[in-house]
Design brief:
Blueprint (H helix, E strand, L loop, with lengths): L2 H40 L5 H35 L1 H5 L1
């Protein structure tokens, strides 16, 4: 196991985690921005108005994206498992 291999596996794991979190973070960002614009125009500064819609939106996005996320995680795990014999020699 070379240092280059370890770095490439770590880089691939980081890329995978960013790819899997992107849909949820994007939905949270979009809903948060929409709520902020709504609050700025109406001057209603209620704290629960920001958190509850974001939580609901992220949970809905998780329900929609869960099959895709599970497929990506399974593919990544199977790739890592199949490389074990190459590592051990």
């Amino acid at each position: 196991m070379t240092p280059e291999f370890v770095v490439s596996v770590a880089a691939e794991a980081v890329k995978m985690s960013l790819l899997l979190s992107l849909p949820l973070l994007g939905v949270g960002l979009a809903v948060g921005l929409a709520i902020a614009v709504l609050q700025a125009t109406t001057q209603v500064q209620e704290m629960t108005l920001t958190f509850v819609p974001k939580i609901v939106a992220v949970l809905l996005a998780l329900l929609v994206a869960a099959p895709w996320m599970l497929n990506k995680m399974t593919q990544f795990a199977s790739r890592m498992i199949t490389t074990i014999p190459d590592i051990v020699h």
